[in-house]
Amino acid sequence: MPELSRGEVRHLADLARIDLSDAELDHLAPQLNVILESVASIQGVAGDDVVPTSHPIPMTNVFREDVVVPCLTPEQALAAAPEREDDKFAVPRILGDEQ
Amino acid sequence: MTEAKLAGSASDRRPTLIDFDTVLESFDPAMGLEVHVELNTATKMFCGCPTGFGAAPNTQVCPTCLGLPGAMPVVNGKAVESAMRIGLALNCEIAEWCRFARKNYFYPDMPKNFQTSQYDEPIAFDGYLDVDVDGETFRIEIERAHMEEDTGKATHVGGTTGRIHGADYSLIDYNRAGIPLIEIVTRPIMGAGEKAPLVAKAYVSALRDLVKALGVSDVRMDQGSMRCDVNLSLAPKGSGALGTRSETKNVNSLRSVERAVRYEMSRHAGILLAGGKVLQETRHFHEDDGSTSPGREKSDAEDYRYFPEPDLVPVAPSREWVEELRGTLPEPPAGRRTRLQAEFGFSDLEMRDVVAAGALDLIAETVEAGTTPQAARKWWMSELARRANDTGVALDEVGVTPAQIVEVQRLIDDKTINDKLARQVFEGLYAGEGTPAEIVAARGLAVVSDDGALTAAVDAAIEAQPAVAEKIRGGNHAAAGALIGAVMKAMGGQANAARVREIIMEKLA
């Protein structure tokens, strides 16, 4: 039975850029473990004859023709942007580095 | 903070660079090259937005590539086909079944907060590409070629350098986000020794030629449609081990690939010989002085939590499809070069110059259009190369077609014009004055073969240079050159030199 440690939850929170207080960690870590337990009970049902699946429908090769379709206008694209400048999305100074 | 980190940062401020020959006395280099190729499909990898370079910001975006809620991706079939053709050209196996995966990270160049990529199930794997360096063949093993999507483009505003550090904020254009990319990853390249920098360059060059021949990408390193990351490590000489690697990102010219390998070898050796440890980190390459500087350290932040993309179904190419695509592969560039060199009768040196000038395809087309390899080479490597150089354009952009060159050469062969007049015909072609024949007529460039006019000019030359005429009468036929030159000058270069010589000989010999 996998157990999610408090440290692992903190790590996941860091990766998700969520700043969790110690109290929040104490609150959330057990909850996540409940979810894991629920999933584990499904794993117990699945036998060796059931292959892991990542898609509910067993189909392959769904492709699109390489044909251009209309885009959004910059106005539409930027409609929900908190900040913009020159038809570009303005974002806070980026710490860390480019991927 | 670890000791290794301190050692690394101190050496980065003032890296000790070890002389290249000294590096090789103590170490064996190992390289790994990751090349990203942007496909030239009309649309993006997972949506129908166009992919043209240089469009106004955020005009080639839709809910899917902006990662808006509810938007669903659909795979571009042409991109899958291009990926498989690249894989086949690299002698890879093509997966019978593979999936896309989400690579999760938070950075504003990907609005979805993940990049759709492939993880442990690449479309192509286990291939190789043979490259030639100074007559020695190196087999570069390809680990994998996988499909993914490009990111948006961030412009950093403020600060002094325009780079990330010191930027106040960033502006994002998502036109590039979602353009199909193929990432081609080599296995560690070992045993290249002193030739490591050249092998790296030769591999990227050969890969570029191959992808270009496939017609699936523009492979313009200067425009970012082909980008290279250079992994390098050193191990004690003869140990056969792999040392800690650095990853130099975005090395974007063939020359830079060679320089980046050379620099990192010298830098790693400086750290290792001083008893330090090389940091596993990404580094930036600087075009101006060929150096690298630290980017982000590989850390636990680089935990991408890959998982299979639930919005896309697996790609399972039938073997019939794979074989059909194999049948569309062009002749491999290296083999084609060898064949053309033999067919054209070029020396190794001539061939090397032709390839370096980017003239091989143009010469091949010109020969195909109906002239000799020698004539085709002469024009592309002299007159047209000079024109390209003077005007700062690529050779295939000088505005003269292979068919026009064939026509110019035909006019020379039938003695309508000579080589010197041909240069004026090319000037007419640059200026768009019509066909070569029309230019000859309009500019009055035809060679004069009319005996009456030539004889008059010869008589004038003999009268002007009696001493020379006397020499020829005395049997010194070589002296005729002076008279021919005088006639050519008098007739503005348009005299038929061979006929002039005949007339002189008829009169004096």
Structural class of chain B: alpha+beta
Determine the strand fraction of chain A and express it as a percent band.
5-15%
- Considering DSSP H and I runs of 4 or more, what fraction of the residues of chain A is helical? 25-40%
What is the residue-mean pLDDT of chain A, rounded to a whole number?
86
Q: Name the largest protein-protein interface in this structure.
A: A-B, 40 and 66 residues
Strand content of chain B: 15-25%
Work out the oligomeric state of the chains in this entry.
heterodimer
Distance between the termini of chain A: 35 Å
Q: Tell me the Rg of chain B in angstroms.
A: 30 Å
- CATH class of the domain at 1-46 in chain A equals Mainly Alpha
Enzyme class (chain B): ligase
Keywords (chain B): ATP-binding, Ligase, Nucleotide-binding, Protein biosynthesis, Transferase
Catalytic activity (chain B): L-aspartyl-tRNA(Asn) + L-glutamine + ATP + H2O = L-asparaginyl-tRNA(Asn) + L-glutamate + ADP + phosphate + 2 H(+); L-glutamyl-tRNA(Gln) + L-glutamine + ATP + H2O = L-glutaminyl-tRNA(Gln) + L-glutamate + ADP + phosphate + H(+)
Pfam families (chain B): GatB_N (PF02934), GatB_Yqey (PF02637)
